[in-house]
Write a structure and sequence with these properties.
Elements (H helix, E strand, L loop, with lengths): L1 E2 L2 H21 L6 E7 L3 H16 L3 E7 L5 H13 L5 E4 L9 H7 L11 H8 L8 H12 L8 E5 L6 H9 L7 E5 L6 H6 L3 E4 L16 E5 L3 E4 L7 E4 L4 H4 L3 E4 L6 H18 L6
Parallel strand pairs: 1-11, 2-3, 2-4, 5-6, 5-7, 7-8, 8-11
Antiparallel strand pairs: 9-10
């Protein structure tokens, strides 16, 4: 069994990004600029945003935060997005989700210029992904595929099971696994209404789970030698720890790991990859890798 170390891999990628940005500066080019729109004061969202800004600083990328109060109107947020769309100094930006209940998330996402949509949520980027065209891909699925690539884990012709069908993880990672380029897998997508979940998981050579149910995946659901990628992360109360909680994945790691050829830990697996893929998307936006502006 080998650990798929997302923390170590992400550090390597950040170093690569830092070197490329340094070369851009030495060549007289402007450094990439990521903007983040945050609405409200949700503790988890604020932590995620702080981590993204910190990683930007680590690789020499410029980061700007636009922080709005909980009661900011939808029109106010869309007006800010329109300003970012037209600002030539901003290469890419994201709107941190979730948004307050009075704001329509889909309308906000669709207001973003798809050429600056480094979260990969805009319908144009989603559509291009599904037909195999160049586009910005959601950071978590992109991080999963990059982690597999860096560990030389081939998906070609292999039976892959994706547990979860969210727009952010399940659907896009399934689409990437099916693509002729860098995918070529046989993909089954499972969800809350699927039948024979345990049986399907047992047939998987590569299992990607993103359902947010701690320790849902047990050892008897895993094929011997499978590759297991755990995206789930749930706070579970634990008074023995200073924070008062521990983070658990979808996989019963201690019992599942011995059966695997490769497995991601939680935390330290896919999470760190997600943030560095956002930075990689921003670098691509600055270089106009996918879209000429």
């Amino acid at each position: 069994m080998q650990i798929l170390d997302g923390k170590k891999t992400a550090a390597t990628i950040v170093s690569e990004i830092r070197q490329e940005i340094l070369q851009m500066k030495q060549g007289g080019l402007r450094v990439p600029h990521l903007a983040i729109v945050l609405v409200g004061y949700d503790g988890a969202s604020e932590t995620y945003v702080a981590n993204k800004i910190k990683m930007c600083e680590q690789c020499g990328m410029k980061a700007s935060l636009l922080h709005f109060a909980d009661d900011a109107s939808q029109d106010e947020i869309i007006a800010a997005i329109e300003q970012l769309n037209s600002n030539p100094d901003i290469d890419g930006f994201i709107v941190q989700l979730p948004l307050p209940a009075h704001i329509d998330e889909q309308k906000v996402i669709e207001a973003i210029d798809y050429r600056k949509d480094v979260d990969g949520f805009h319908p144009i980027n989603v559509g291009r992904l599904y037909i195999g065209m160049p586009c910005f891909v959601c950071a978590t699925p992109k991080g999963i595929m990059e982690l597999l690539r860096r560990y030389n884990i081939s998906t070609r012709g292999r039976k892959c099971v994706v547990l979860g069908r969210s727009n952010i993880v399940g659907k896009p990672v399934a689409a990437m696994l099916m693509q002729k380029e860098h995918g070529d897998a046989t993909v089954t997508v499972l969800h809350s209404h699927s039948q024979r979940i345990a049986e399907e998981c047992r047939e998987a050579e590569i299992l990607v789970t993103a359902i947010g149910q701690p320790h849902f995946i047990k050892a008897d659901m895993i094929k011997e030698g499978a590759v297991v990628v755990d995206i789930g992360i749930t706070r579970v109360p634990d008074t023995s720890l200073p924070k008062g909680y521990r983070l658990l994945g979808d996989v019963d790691f201690d019992n599942v790991a011995p059966k695997c050829s490769y497995i991601t830990p939680v935390p330290g697996g896919v999470g760190p990859m997600t943030v560095c893929m956002l930075l990689l998307n921003t670098l691509d936006a600055a270089k106009h890798t996918y879209y000429q502006q």
